[in-house]
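Entry 14. Ran structure prediction on the chain below.
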Amino acid sequence: LRESDREGIDAACRSMTAPWALERAKTDQTVETCQYFDGFQAAGEATSMPSGVYDLEELKKWGKGKNWCPYYLTRQAINHATVLVFNYQYMLDPKVAKMVSKELESESIIVFDEAHNIDSVCIEALSVTVNDRNLDQATRSLGRLSSEVSRMKASDSERLQREYQNLVNGLVDQGLLEASANEAGFASNVLNPDVINEAVPGNIRRAEHFISFMKKIVEHLKTRLLTVAGPRGGVISETPLAFLHRMITTTSLEAKPLKFAYSRLSSLLRTLQVPNLDDYNALTDVADFASLVATYSEGLPKFAIIMEPNGSSIPGASDPVIQLACLDASLAIAPLFKRFGSVIITSGTLSPIDLYPKLLQFEPRVSESFNMSTFRPCIRPLVITRGSDQLPVSTKFDDRGDMGVVRNYGSMLVELCSSIPDGVVAFFTSYSYMESIISEWDGMGILRQLTKSKLVFIETKDVVETTLALDNFRRA
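Output, structure tokens:
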């Protein structure tokens, strides 16, 4: 396996460390398991680490020396560490947080640094987007699940019957919400008491009935996308209640089973012992979409359904999308305020400072703003209103698409880069604006001129790519 093949590595890891794989290995010597995971399991209580600061490379080195899996070692070490440094999503995204940070003590001090975009992170954590490609992939995934269910009925029907009985008892009794440490699975964004404590509705308990249920949801979403992309289509916004009502009327589905779609899918994938969960990402997005719509359809709208005929940033490309957009940033962060006594939100650009308590709906105990101080006069603001051809330049929305403005900004950047000996950072007001400008600059030959004096690194929405670009920028 290549190191870059994340999905392949995840599937291989799961196939060698999942509980069902370990059980099978006890009776079948041909079943391959992971020597590092086996070593970690065999060490038991002895899996402790000396005090120190560990990054990814150090963890890998330490784990290899001890013959312990560094991934599971890290998950255990999290509960004993004095300081943890990680991404916002490990705290705010319910799916990730339930696996990584659920064991942290309530006395822990949580610090969100560079938190000027924390509201956007909260909203993105609970928003779901599906397009034609996702729905086609979900259809194929349902076909594979149907084949797997038929195969299991013929070879091990008792396991499906046990799952059915567990679903009668409810999600808590089945342990769906408390997966074992060595079992990767899905954690839903929904933590509605009804979903946690009640039995799964009868019409989706049997695997084949649930697959048929999910097929109806996928087909309904496909129909809505066709309508949006059609000649009479356009951008449509609906409340979850209106969207749900139309779905129920069209498909004859009930609202209550929709709330359980995500958790029921998680149970089925576990029962079928699916090794490569990434193959089912599109289907899980659809199930998550259905569960969120059904759960948050009542009361004051906290979500909006936005359907666009073209969700692509590429001009002229047709890519209709349906987005379940979260409107309330406080939904994701509220469990943290409830669970931890000390939560600190800080940033050098947290302004206006009184806006964030309103966005996140909390009452700050202490709110302080400090003046910026520098040890040398390192800031020299310069505002340029006209280009070298004396045409006005502005990033104002009405003017930013003008070819004269685009050309003048590019020429100005080329001139600056040719005279400034060190690094230059060019800031754009949005990713979409940056993408369109770079596309135009490439056509004008401006990027080619830039590369004569500087190495060019471009930020993307991918965290890994951007981290590598930033590291290379510093080295350059």
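The first strand starts at residue 109 and ends at 112. Will compare against last week's run tomorrow.
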